[in-house]
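Dear support,

Our group has been running a series of protein-ligand predictions, and this particular one with pyridoxal-5'-phosphate is the one our PI (initials K.S.) wants archived with full inputs and outputs. We had some confusion internally about which version of the output was final, so please treat the block below as the authoritative record. The input we submitted was:
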Amino acid sequence: MKPETVAIHAGNFYKTSTNDVTLPINLSTTFLRDEDGGYSGGHMYSRVSNPNRTALEKALTELEKGAGACAFSSGNTAGMALFQALKPGSHIIAPDDMYWGFKKQLQTIFKDTLAFDFIDLTRVDEIAAHIKENTVLIWAETPSNPLLKITDIAAISRLSKKHGLLFACDSTFASPCLQNPIALGADIVMHSSTKYIGGHSDVLGGILVTAALNEFWDKVKNIQETGGAVPSPFDCFLLIRSIKTLPYRMRGHCTNGMALALFLEKHPAVEKVFYPGLSTHPQHEIAKSQMSDFGGMLSILVKGGAEEARKVVNSVQLFAQATSLGGVESLIEHRASIEGPTTKTPPNLIRISAGLEHIDDLIADLEQALS
Ligand SMILES: *Cc1c(COP(=O)(O)O)cnc(C)c1O
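Confirmed final output from the archive:
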């Protein structure tokens, strides 16, 4: 079935004793045992599994065309579970503009146990040159943050298969509706469900979806169940509720993202626009081939420096000046000041998450803020 249908029905498969049309929130932490000691209800203890989480994992497995999924309490814990599943001494190839929370995990939590190189993944020859004897994982993020770089998922998948490596892709900016990395050869897809999947800036969560049920996935599943960084039944309920409208929300985010990119590209106060839907974007052709649309995230360089950029984010009325992305409300953010003094992000860069307000109102707000 098509994503619109899957999104509405995949998380709603339980038949309850009260014949509910939508899956209710099940807060029970423990479940009754049968006389023979078994669990015919399918659940034993809610850290290991519970009906709402199982439903969420099933919905995301189907949307990402995978074989199984693990839901976590945040995007960060989802990514961390994957790093924890690697043997100590393993080497990872990660993007130079990797989501800063993951870069921080590698550089602080895993600095003594894992080795890693941060490289420009838009250059497949660069990746090949960095593969070592102990390399086990290529981690990609596409579109990337905040420069909206596009990584060729099929090309990296071919390379990782050739070298027997695991290939994981952070697909948060695309959501499961705009690209399916598993269909292009990735082994694992990661999402921060805090973003588009949740879509209303009110629930924190993360997800890993696997292409195959194998030994490595068993390790990840064990880290989820035994480590216990799991979302609550209420979080899972909210995410299932949000997923039902995800395909339609994504259409609005993409339409508004494209319209803002075209408006900003022509604006005299703007030096540059980063949006994969623009034909001037360096990886526009790859984006066209692996994404069904280009998303609601864009970045701009304001003419001038940090001061001019900060003036713009302080002058908007409708956009909320806040970090994060993927919600129904439009957000705007001066990235360098959140990433700290060591960042390579240009000082005049502003990141925009196009929400679902009317495009005329969004353009009018940016127009007044830029003048
Ligand atoms: C937000 C984000 C994460 C981390 O997710 P949290 O839910 O904040 O822990 C990871 N990757 C990308 C691309 C993100 O935008």
